[in-house]
Amino acid sequence: MATFQFRDHALHLDIAGNLFDISVNPKTIQSIVEWGRQAQEKANQYRSRTDPESVLELETFMVSILDRLLGDGASARIFAGREQNLFDLVDIMNYIVSEVRGYQEQIAAPPLSDYHPNRAQRHESKQNRFGVDVLREALNKLEAESCHE
Q1: Which residues pair with 18 in a beta bridge?
Q2: Contact, 135 vs 104, CB < 8 A?
Q3: Do the Cβ atoms of 24 and 9 come closer than 8 Å?
Q4: Cα(130)–Cα(108) distance, integer angstroms
Q5: Residue 119: predicted pLDDT
Q6: How do residues 10-64 score in pLDDT, each as one tens digit?
Q7: CA–CA distance from 110 to each of 2, 8, 24, 26, 129 (Å)?
Q8: How far apart are CA 51 and CA 31, in angstroms?
């Protein structure tokens, strides 16, 4: 009898020697896009401020995003033995977004050898597997918005 086994669809991340798994699904992507939008708004609000409190507020916001995405205490594990700063937090979030985008590309283009040739030809033009194009478009839009600011 044939047996079906689920494949591992978690995105495995190694951040500063700490391993994290996140599920890449529309809810996760939507959260990342929304948090990115909120981060841009906060950065714009604080752009004219030079007080240290504004930087701490941005750091606190970024830490909350990181902990919601990777799990409670993730930021403490990542920054163990290292001083937390806004630049590192932004770098980590950029890394996560980049890895999510790469993962999307990977699942959007399954090997054609898995299909019969004529089936592969029929489905070659259909790129929107499991809503991947929608997710990719949201990440591209977020990246474009952040480049214009």
Answers
A1: 15
A2: yes
A3: yes
A4: 8
A5: 57
A6: 899 999 999 999 988 888 888 888 888 888 888 888 777 778 888 888 899 999 9
A7: 22, 15, 16, 19, 10
A8: 29
Q: For residue 92, give the nearest of 35, 9, 24 by alpha carbon.
A: 35
Residue closest to 100 by CA, chosen among 129, 127, 132: 132
The whole-number pLDDT of residue 40 equals 84
* Confidence band for 122, pLDDT divided at 50, 70 and 90: low
**pTM of structure:** 0.68
The set of long-range contacts for 102-107, using a CB threshold of 8 Å and a minimum separation of 24, is 103/11, 103/24, 104/24, 104/132, 104/135, 104/136, 104/139, 105/136, 107/9, 107/24, 107/132
Residues 63-85: pLDDT tens digits?
999 999 999 999 999 999 999 99
Whether residue 127 has pLDDT greater than 50: no
Rounded to the nearest 5°, which phi and psi values hold at 38? -65, -40
CB 35 within 8 A of CB 62: no
User: How far, in Å, CA of 131 to CA of 149, rounded?
Assistant: 28
Q: Which amino acid is at 27?
A: K
